[in-house]
Amino acid sequence: MAVLLMVLVRGLLVQSFSVPSGSMEPTLEPGDRILVSRLHRGPSIERGDVVVFDGTDSWGKPSAPSADGLSQVVRSMLSLVSLGSGADYVKRVVGMPGDRVACCTGEGQLTVNGAPVQESYLYPGNPPSTMRFDVIVPSGKIWVMGDHRSASADSRAQLGRPGGGMVPLDDVVGRTWIRYWPLDRIGSLTPAPTLSQLLSPSGASS
User: Fold this and answer.
1) Average pLDDT over the chain, rounded to whole?
2) Residues labelled catalytic
């Protein structure tokens, strides 16, 4: 019963992931372990959310970072509470279906639907993008980017591939919720799911 309960919780409510690279610094650092709320996906996703998505059918598997022996052991132990596909990415939602996302203005800002975006979460010293682009996000898709723009292979890097760098909303696993590792960085990343969401069967499958 305990195992069944754990599987149900992980499959319907929360899921654990490891942050493999520095593409989301300073928001998330390499080696951070996070819980993702599976109640926030599909229509629940909003511009600005940091989400985990399964890139199996769109981007393929990301390159695996090297690690020493101790790190390998810790990672293996923590993976016991994870259900990742092996092709999971964590990025910030910049464009929603129907949005026009472009970079950059004469002042060097990224725009969404013509309005400059104030990106306070960017890695210090990074411009919004050194690559120019102008895209319209199709229905059912999102445009995602890392906060550490100079170190993130995100939607921009996929522009020349089928799908044009867009991520299907159906591939979103959920929104980042809590960092639980390392111990000195434990804390909430976004507001917790409400009690009504936790108890709502429709919320868990949206």
Assistant:
1) 81
2) 23, 91
